[in-house]
User: Fold these one by one.
Assistant:
Number 1:
Amino acid sequence: MQVLVCKNPAEVAEAASMIFASLIYEKPNCILGLATGSTPVPTYQRLIALYNKGLLDFSKVRSYNLDEYVSLAGTHPCSYRYFMNTELFDHVNIDKANTHVPNGLGDDPEANAREYDKMLEECGGIDLQLLGIGRNGHIGFNEPRNDHFVYNTNIVTLTQSTREANAQYFDKPEDMPEKAISMGVGGIMAAKRVLLLATGKSKAQAVHDTVKGPITPMVPASILQAHQNCQIICDAEAASLL
Ligand code: F6R
């Protein structure tokens, strides 16, 4: 696990967008693992800017997102499908048919989870997986637990900490779903390269525990210590406890 400490969130986004851009130049039909949340937004903005300058072509890129809320349609402004469309996909020449977000709708979310794993297996492997990190050390929506890591895509009951962190995006905090569908740590670990971004003081403890603590399902991101090609890019505040 390699850690790069940048001065501020703008530098984190600059470094991350360069890594994405070089992969897309080198391998135009690459498979990206994408994340939502506030952390990757400046990175997506830089990728859009490169596209607008004619420097990036997403026409052959395929993508798989980490997670989605259970019971929110993709048209709901708080759904992660909506987020991806408005923050990235609508602004570049990616074919939306080549973009995948777990499906939180329908009577059988568990079946959707199995279907997502099948798609991940069949896609041939994610080339570059982007991650944010929760204040509690979650990656995707793999929340801390005291028994074992969950490897497959799964239905998660969100913790109080995650619900509090994300309620701000909903008009009424009580509208926030209690469950989500998330790629498991197995899907994340199977990516050829992993890039975790962390910015701000609220992530400092989670970054510390991820890098310096034991590998434990209580800190889901700590499993990345066992990944062959994982980089963490954080700003000075997120790195302040290292
Ligand atoms: C989002 C995701 C989450 C976020 C994490 C940090 O797809 O999987 O793990 O990356 O909750 O969120 P922000 O960036 O909003 O602090």
Note: Residues 27 and 61 are 9 Å apart (CA to CA).
Number 2:
Amino acid sequence: MKVYINGQFFSKEDAKVSVYDHGLLYGDGVFEGIRVYHNKVFKLKEHVDRLYESAQTIMLKIPFSKEEMTAAVVEAVRQNPYEDAYIRLVVTRGVGSLGLDPNKCAKPQIIIIVDKITLYSSETYRRGMEIITVATRRNLQEALNPRIKSLNYLNNIMAKMEAIHAGFEEAIMLNQNGFVAECTGDNIFIVKEESLVTPSLENGFLDGITRRTVMDLAVGKGLRVVEKTLSRHDLYVADECFLTGTAAGVVPVVKIDGRTIGSGEPGKHTLELSRAYDQLTQKEGVPVPRTAKV
Ligand code: PMP
């Protein structure tokens, strides 16, 4: 396995960064999680675009054009032997001094890890997941907008810990007004009376690329897609529920806070959208040129 750091490749053991990097010291940086399916990088443009948007808001000037970044990601995949993989693309503020001032960091660090990832068991996908609402609220948009995919994930980790402590794998996070925002690493959808419904952006969550993809697939299937403010009650009385994320894919949810959702089994539309998503991942993407080198 080879890890990309600032234009060079290192073995996993030698892939190291400075303890003075503000990514480590303060979580000052941005990142993306991207998938490779069938030797093609899925939704690469969307991920690169979101990375640059996150960087723009935190005033982090990435020293690469989007084209150069795209090429670096493809090269990082090419340097590794996996046809199916997870890419972690990280841009930190870089090495600085002790103290918050980002201007003391001379140069951002770019790190690309290509590895395997399995978030949940095949059993979870087959039977559906049971999730709970936790007390930890999603970050206030006016404080740290969840649309920035920053290296500071403590808000999500705190919520995830609550879920795990209670014996669950994933948590629903509400926003400051008590409405549904998202899960700790996934967006949330319900199906109600043949419509696909998901929280609208003003509810404060990461604008997921899988979310957008699944919404497009649903429109293509003739389903009505609605973005609106959702309460927990809306979730409890849904016909179906599922989560979406790059790493997790489409995850059926069958129980929320002890309430059985719909029939208690993964729903019809959930399964159809999950299948359509899987098919798309096998078809679309930026191909990785493989030569004799790998
Ligand atoms: N919400 C959060 C908090 C996330 O970290 C992620 C990504 N793991 C998502 C939603 C899903 O976003 P995407 O579909 O772009 O992976």
Note: Residues 137 and 176 are 6 Å apart (CA to CA).
